[in-house]
Amino acid sequence: MFQLEWNEKYEVGNPEIDSEHKIFVRILQKIICSSEKKENHAFTERLIYQIYKYADFHFFSEETLMMEIHYPAMGEHKKEHDMLLMELRNNISVTGNENYQRPLDDFIRFVTDWFVSHSVKMDKKLADFIEKNKVCTC
Ligand SMILES: [Fe+2]
Hints:
Elements: H1 15-36, H2 41-68, H3 74-90, H4 104-132
Helix pairs in contact: 1-2, 1-4, 2-3, 3-4
């Protein structure tokens, strides 16, 4: 059984980003849990829609932060966000093309790997930039 627990190594050191990441992981945990109750497919689909909507909100929030501080690496960072959003959207049954939808286990692993890799690299760089430049994000 695949499990995902919040881990300190996912923390980037910016309270706003970290608190939103915890919610993202929580929704992903619910998808994992729901996927194991195979009779509840419609609910799992709803959770996939939820993680798409939340990722859309969270990326918009991070990108607003980047604009606020004139973050020099915004372009490459946003490219990774857009790639995940497209992947999530493709896996929602009402918006996705079924030819592109991944099997659920594969989808869960893909999103988990993406989150771990993106947060410890890209988001950590962003948080460090904010800290190093003592940017006030009020
Ligand atoms: Fe990000």
